[in-house]
Structures are given as C-alpha cells and as structure tokens.
Design brief:
The structure holds two protein chains of two kinds. Chain A is mostly beta strands. Chain A has no helices and eleven strands. Chain B has strands at residues 4-5, 11-14, 19-25, 33-38, 45-50, 54-58, 61-66, 71-76, 85-93, 98-101, 105-110. The chains are: A mainly beta, B mainly beta.
Chain lengths: 117, 111
C-alpha cells in the first residue's frame, strides 16, 4: 500500500514552454500533498504544500505564479512549471500524506526529472 | 523554521558491521520522527518512523528516540553494500504541519 505515482518520469523541454507534472496516490486518499525540488547533491527543498480543494501554501522564495499547483481531488495534485528556463532544471518530487492516519508519514512519488534546454 | 541536523558524512562501514546514523532536532514540540533512504537519482523511501521514547525495531533497522535530548538515531545491523545511500531524518512539525528534513547522511558500506 501507500503508492504514489508521478508522470512523466522525465521531460525535456525548450526554454519558455510550460510543463505539467502529475502526482497521484494510487491506493489511498491524501489529505495533503507536497512538492519538493532537489538539485544534484543537495537536499530536498519543499516548494509548496497542497490541500485538496484549497489553495497551495508556498514556501518562502518560491514563485507561486511560476509554479502552479492544483489539488483537484484526494488522489491527484499537479505542478505546472510555467515558462520554464534552464535554471528550473531539477528533480521534482511529490509526496502524499495518508488521510485519517495520525502519524503524519509521507510517501514519495518516484520523481520527475526536468531538463530545460 | 526549526532545524533538523545530521552529519553529512560519508559514513563508511564494512559489510556486516552496524551503521549508526544520528539526528538532532530543535523543536521540542515535535511528535513524530521518520527515517528515509534515498538512493542516488531516486526519490526518498520511508524506512520507519517512531513517536515514543525508546527503541523501535524493524528487521535490520532500529530507530531510537530520546525526546529529552532531542535526538533520534537509526541503527542498521549487518550492513550490506545495498544499504549504501543517503539517509534522511525528518521530524514532523505540528506548528508548520509538515515534515522538516535534515540534509541527510551518506552511508557507504564497503565489501
């Protein structure tokens, strides 16, 4: 149980284009989903917290107009990187917290590697 | 924002030895504590969590929590080369309603 999927696993795009990444909890309902970014040899950086049916909460320094998050249902959250630039190239990982489970553990998706040319 | 601190390593241990990974946290109000393993180029994988003082064992892994000292550790018995990865300590911050991650400790198990 507690499987989180992400799609696509890898994307290469041209500078200026927008990229959408999907995060799905496959076998549970997620009250909250989280989006992280990780640059090579660096630690996870939380970008935003997403609750179903409400606006995402962004971490300080993360541009909400650039990284659009939609949490449409208890099993799906999307991250759209708008007008992507080479500096946005990174490993984007989502995680989900199981609904009604009190330990607050998060399960991570496999990640999406974004390369912007 | 409260901090979670780990030694970045690398921690090098021979195959079959016990690897001991340590983590300290600053928020006394933290309730639950997690250890994740992350292989290079992959996303983190939950190994185990602990929320009560003392030890919790799961196979070759033992998590230890000391809330008075604000310290949590992970012991890996009979270390294998396949255990070589970065281990992330995470603490749930009720005030921020999210996990706060340490920077991770890189473990290298050599044959």
């Amino acid at each position: 149980g507690a499987v989180v999927s992400q799609h696509p696993s890898r994307v290469i795009c041209k500078s200026g284009t927008s990229v959408k990444i999907e995060c799905r909890s496959l076998d549970f309902q997620a009250t909250t989903m989280f989006w992280y970014r990780q640059f090579p040899k660096q630690s996870l950086m939380l970008m935003a917290t997403s609750n179903e049916g409400s606006k995402a909460t962004y971490e300080q320094g993360v541009e909400k107009d650039k990284f659009l998050i939609n949490h449409a249902s208890l099993t799906l959250s999307t991250l759209t990187v708008t007008s992507a630039h080479p500096e946005d190239s990174s490993f984007y990982i989502c995680s989900a917290r199981i609904r009604d489970r009190g330990y607050n553990e998060q399960f991570f998706g496999p990640g999406t590697r974004l390369t912007v040319l | 924002q409260k901090e979670v601190e780990q030694n970045s390593g690398p921690l090098s241990v021979p195959e079959g030895a016990i690897a001991s990974l340590n983590c300290t946290y600053s928020d006394r109000g933290s309730q639950s504590f997690f250890w994740y393993r992350q292989y290079s180029g992959k996303s983190p994988e939950l190994i185990m969590f602990i929320y009560s003082n003392g030890d919790k064992e799961d196979g070759r892994f033992t998590a230890q929590l000391n809330k008075a000292s604000q310290y949590v550790s992970l012991l890996i018995r009979d270390s294998q080369p396949s255990d070589s990865a970065t281990y992330l300590c995470a603490v749930f911050s009720g005030g921020y309603n999210k996990l706060i991650f340490g920077a991770g400790t890189r473990l290298a198990v050599h044959p």
